[in-house]
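Supplementary notes for students who missed Thursday's class. We covered one full example, reproduced here. Read the sequence, then the structure, then the short commentary at the end.
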Amino acid sequence: MIIEHHELHKYLPHRHPFLLVDRIVEIEAFQRAVGIKNVTGSEYFFPGHFPERPVMPGVLIIEALAQTAAALAIYSVPGEAGALIYFAAIDNARFKRPVVPGDTLRLLVEVDKTKSRLWKVKGRAFVGEELACEADLTAMVQKKE
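Structure (token representation):
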């Protein structure tokens, strides 16, 4: 299944300029998801993040992975649509290469385990076949009110 950009609002509360996933190109409930982020020169963060040599901030790469994981969690449990998902931990984050304008990030998240409202995933961001970032992410799904 593919989740197009105009459908992401069903799975994520984020909106421009903080929606950092352009589409989900693969998704398997409780297993994995692959998101795409096309990094353009007009991103709001580039003028202030090394203007002479723009680099996507690592924290935003982690956030893009987290948004992909959040979409997977909501897709996996449709009754949670509209719930918010909060970071509980970021572990073992490593940055392997800079992400620059013109790159396309492939955001792969694979479920390590879920327990009640807690989700643990392994996230990896690639540019082409080259690993740009990896991290273990833990998030908590907040009950809808």
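Commentary. The first strand starts at residue 23 and ends at 28. DSSP finds one helix and six strands in the chain. If anything here is unclear, bring it to office hours.
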